[in-house]
Amino acid sequence: MDDKTKFEIEFPIQASPQLLYQYISTPSGLSEWFSDNVNSRGELFTFIWDDSEEQAKLLSKKSGERVKFRWVADEEDGASCYFEIRIQVDEITKDVSLMVTDFAEDDEVDEAKMLWDNQISDLKQVLGSA
């Protein structure tokens, strides 16, 4: 069922796109800020938080630019939602932003955005750009 709402948020970030890509595309990078631990076996990533874990399938990635995942639970429900983290560089100013695209239930969009705010805040701490 596709009853989730798509949303996109932009986070300006002080880091080189190359460094940023390591933090959004590798298990070791993701475990620094996104979850407590991340394991991957091929296209399947396991994200571990405290006492829970979720699996996501890597749908696509473009080196230095973006990664796109789909939670296995969503896939089993037949949902076509995903989450994507994209690095965007302004051609003129060279300012770097992370663009996050995700889906949430209508009544959970604000909560999901706050969660991403917290996650990206952790990433900025790790990068020393907070």
Task: Describe the secondary-structure layout.
Blueprint lengths: L4 E8 L4 H9 L1 H4 L6 E5 L2 E6 L2 E11 L3 E6 H5 L6 E7 L6 E9 L4 H19 L3
Antiparallel strand pairs: 1-7, 2-3, 3-4, 4-5, 5-6, 6-7
Question: What descriptive keywords fit this protein?
Answer:
alpha+beta; globular; 130 residues; 7-stranded antiparallel sheet; 4 helices
The helix/strand class is: alpha+beta
Q: Main sheet, how many strands, which sense, barrel?
A: 7 strands, antiparallel
Number of helices: 4
Strand content: 35-45%
Low-pLDDT regions: none
> What is the CA–CA distance across the termini?
38 Å
Can you tell me the overall shape? globular
Element-level helix/strand string = EHHEEEEHEEH
Helix content, binned percent: 25-40%
For the biggest β-sheet, the strand order reads 1-7-6-5-4-3-2
